[in-house]
Design a protein that fits this description.
heterodimer, A: about 240 residues, mainly alpha, 9 helices, elongated, B: about 250 residues, alpha/beta, Rossmann fold, 4-stranded antiparallel beta sheet, 10 helices, about 40% helix
């Protein structure tokens, strides 16, 4: 375990060496940002709307007491979405979509000698392949999480309109009541940390792939599993430290 | 010139290479031959720095490559071109982008100049007009030729070729060998080729090293190989009935 941790840290150090040519790396960063950000927007939108809607209906179901104002469903759905569902669930989904793609892409490059070709040319392969992915992860994950929060709250409103369990006016009033900016800061910190964890762990797994197609698949699986576990661990630590 | 001195490479308890020394001269096709598992590809990877030798030195025109760190190696690496066994073209890039990739990273040429160079290299390997194709749209022989075009794009002083004929039909194999030979002579490149293709050995083997059990077993030219009495080399080169018959006619 310590051997792997050491290799991971050394790989990260190599990844952030001075680039051979900034413009080439910048183009790669932009390409990765489009792939991570725009490419993930569809799946994030779908899960966010459904999770927001389901959360609101479940909260409304549990608040059966006439003493509790119905608007509280909006407040609970908002805070759950901002603090947990959007950053954590979205990141777990992104680990599957973005992380596995990164691990298998880099792993395939390894087994088909494309990484060797980069090294022969004098290119710092970890820098060229991994740093743009990490930069794309830490910049695009917060944007995706903010979009997910907005869509999750919209999903809750939609559930109110369609089901009538809580009136849309009560829901919106609950969303506005007692809002604290800290929750958004926590969500953004989580998104940045999760973005780093997922991209770096999956890239590490891909970079040290040995063998053929079978091992590429195993690297992608390992990347997703390890990054999901680390995301959940980091989620706990950030929540404890910031709240 | 490239000189290797006492190259030894060990993986765990397995001694893959045992003290190999040789000199590879410019303008010559230097072939490393040997059976499967004899250490040919490992030796090539030690020379180009993909593997660090356990012992020994690799010297490029008087500069000890083995003792250099990553940054110090970059200027030498920009003079190295390599054709991989499976071509190792970047899947996400077109043919043109593959050839221009090292030019983009290591030169300050304008886009038009880089494009000119890419077109020249493509023309040199008889693939004019294939600029916008992706590697997945090319045949095995075309991939090899694009690999050669990328390898020569930076006008290398040293060209390394790993199994240039693997997976190719005999006619295409000969074309690839002829192309490598022409480029080596034309630009006076120090070319090191790892192969076990006997057509290549007899066709372009200016200087041949035969590896056996991780050691340099024999060294000579294609003319000398036909008359050697080295048992292991004879067993390797004249393994087929056809080659034995060809030898008998000599």
């Amino acid at each position: 375990m310590f051997h792997s941790l050491g290799k991971y840290i050394l790989l990260l150090r190599l990844s952030f060496r001075k680039p051979e040519k900034f413009s080439v790396y910048w183009a790669e960063v932009m390409r990765e940002m489009v792939s991570v950000g725009v490419g993930s927007l569809g799946i994030i939108s779908i899960i966010s709307v459904f999770i927001g809607a389901a959360t609101t209906i479940q909260v409304a179901f549990q608040l059966s007491s006439p003493l509790v104002p119905r608007s509280i469903a909006g407040s609970i759905a908002r805070d759950s979405t901002i603090l947990e569902f959007s950053p954590t669930i979205s990141s777990l989904v992104l680990a599957g979509r973005v992380g596995s793609s990164m691990a298998s892409q880099i792993g395939t490059m390894r087994v088909t000698e494309q990484i060797d070709a980069l090294e022969i040319m004098g290119v710092n392969a970890p820098g060229y392949l991994i740093s743009p992915k990490i930069i794309a992860g830490v910049t695009m994950f917060p944007i995706l999480v903010i979009a997910s929060i907005a869509l999750g709250i919209f999903g809750g409103w939609l559930a109110c309109v369609l089901s009538g369990d809580v009136s849309p006016a009560d829901y919106l009033s609950g969303v506005h009541e007692g809002f604290e900016g800290l929750t958004i800061r926590v969500a953004i910190v989580k998104a940045i940390v999760f973005g780093f964890i997922i991209t770096s762990i999956c890239a590490y797994q891909g970079f040290y792939t040995n063998g053929g197609a079978l091992e590429v698949g195993q690297s992608a699986t390992k990347g997703v599993v390890y990054s999901c576990v680390m995301v959940l661990f980091a989620d706990l630590v950030i929540t404890r430290v910031m709240l | 010139m490239i000189e290797i001195k006492g190259i030894t490479k060990t993986f765990g308890d397995n001694d893959v290479l045992r003290g190999i020394s040789a000199k590879f001269k410019p303008g010559k096709n230097n072939l490393i031959i040997g059976g499967s598992g004899s250490g040919k590809t490992t030796l090539l990877k030690c020379i180009v720095g993909l593997h660090e030798p356990t012992k020994g030195d690799v010297i490029f025109d008087g500069e000890n490559f083995t003792e250099m760190n990553f940054e110090q190696r970059v200027p030498i690496r920009t003079h190295i071109g390599m054709l991989f066994q499976n071509s190792a073209l970047f899947d996400s890039m077109t043919v043109e982008e593959n050839i221009m990739f090292p030019l983009n990273l290591f030169t300050n040429r304008t886009h038009a100049e880089k494009l000119d160079r890419a077109n020249f290299c493509l023309e040199r390997v008889n693939l004019k007009g294939k600029n916008k194709l992706y590697p997945s749209e090319l045949s095995g022989g075309m991939k090899k030729r694009v690999g050669i075009a990328r390898a020569i794009s930076m006008q290398p002083k040293y060209l390394f070729v790993d199994e240039p004929n693997s997976g190719l039909d005999p006619k295409t194999s000969i074309l690839i060998d002829e192309l490598i030979n022409e480029l080596t002579e034309e630009y006076q490149i120090t070319t090191v080729i790892v192969t076990h293709d006997m057509n290549s050995v007899m066709g372009i083997g200016d200087h041949i090293i035969f590896l056996h059990q991780g050691k340099k077993w024999w060294e000579g030219t294609k003319d000398e190989i036909a008359h050697t009495d080295n048992k292991e080399l004879n067993d390797f080169v004249f393994a087929s009935k056809f080659m034995r018959a060809a030898k008998a006619r000599l």
